[in-house]
Write a structure and sequence with these properties.
Distance between the termini: 49 Å
Radius of gyration: 18 Å
CATH topology: Rossmann fold
Number of domains: 1
CATH class: Alpha Beta
CATH architecture: 3-Layer(aba) Sandwich
Strand order of the largest sheet: 6-5-4-7-8-9-10
Number of strands: 10
Bound molecules: nicotinamide-adenine-dinucleotide
Structural class: alpha/beta
Shape: globular
Strand content: 15-25%
């Protein structure tokens, strides 16, 4: 059912509280699982999947409340007529990630797996502390691999030609002295997508990474070194602004959809052009 604040327009788009609620049907019939989806980019990917017509969205995180405030992603999805479930999972636990992917069975199994959960460190220079480095790798790298493995296993068993999207970063393509462990993890994600694309391509499963530039989220605002560099980044970005989480959501929807059916192994930069210029 569409929410009462929803209005159909002549273009067929639906508006919800001033936002375009239903923008396309490119994910029609697909079940989408998103990790780290309570807040920020993951929340926008989950809501974006519903706006692009997903059959169901499994919103997963260690907690359900958005760090930036606002309503939980599941409520936002249901308000625009979508179907959503919240499933708590810590991506550093292989068994919790396996259970998460199994939760999609209620809707016929996962078609699109988005391994988005990631963290930054307050102090991530050349002398990054070992315990911080290992904590970051556990989330940003191990957690992404566990998600891709769990999804690939169920897709193969079902003979489903699914799409797996791994959350990289422009920090996985270019380095910065204040994000040593973070860049190392995201560079690993970019190469993980290429290697998994080769391993899973014969089964028709596509694996790509997405590499956002500077996106306005809680993570950005609460990582002091990144937040203080944000203005400089914005001035050097050809489009002269930060990105919005929903712009990553739209790019992920395309990678998850059949519109990108011959695309695998890429690192899709969504950065306003920042990494294209010196
Ligand atoms: N914001 C940016 O500018 C930017 C740029 C490039 C890449 N990214 C990447 O995008 C992803 C999302 O970032 P964001 O800016 O939305 O951050 P965010 O902090 O707003 O959201 C991250 C979410 O991940 C969840 N999370 C953290 N550890 C987890 C764990 N162990 N298991 C499950 N969930 C966990 C958090 O609870 C949070 O809801 C990250 O992988 C990040 O590295 C962000």
């Amino acid at each position: 059912m569409l929410h009462t604040n929803t209005v159909a327009t002549r273009t067929g788009a639906f508006h919800f509280n001033g936002e375009v609620a239903h923008v396309s049907s490119i994910l029609d019939g697909k079940t989408v699982v998103v990790t780290g989806a309570a807040s920020g980019i993951g929340r926008a990917i989950a809501i974006g999947a519903a706006r692009h017509g997903a059959k169901a969205v499994i919103v997963s995180d260690v907690e359900q409340t958005p760090k930036e405030g606002g309503e939980p992603a599941t409520d936002a999805i249901e308000a625009i007529g979508g179907t959503a479930r919240f499933h708590r999972a810590d991506v550093t636990s292989r068994s919790e990630v396996d259970d998460l992917v199994a939760a999609a069975d209620e809707f016929g199994g996962v078609d699109v797996m988005v391994c988005n959960a990631g963290i930054t460190l307050a102090d991530d220079g050349a002398d990054v502390r070992e315990e911080d480095y290992r904590r970051l790798m556990a989330v940003n790298l191990d957690g992404v691999l566990f998600g891709a493995q769990a999804a690939a296993r169920t897709m193969k068993t079902a003979g489903r030609q699914g799409s797996i999207v791994l959350m990289g970063s422009m920090g996985g393509v270019v380095g910065a002295g204040f994000t040593v462990a973070y860049s190392t993890s995201k560079g690993g994600v970019v190469l993980m997508a290429k290697a998994l694309a080769d391993a899973l391509g014969p089964d028709g499963i596509r694996v790509n990474s997405i590499c956002p530039g500077v996106i306005d989220t809680h993570l950005l605002r609460n990582t002091p070194a990144v937040a203080s560099a944000a203005d400089g980044f914005r001035q050097r970005t050809p489009l002269r602004r930060m990105g919005q989480p929903s712009e990553i959501g739209d790019a992920v929807a395309w990678l998850g959809s059949d519109l990108s059916s011959f695309v695998t192994g890429i690192a899709l930069l969504v950065d306003g052009g920042l990494t294209s210029v010196v």
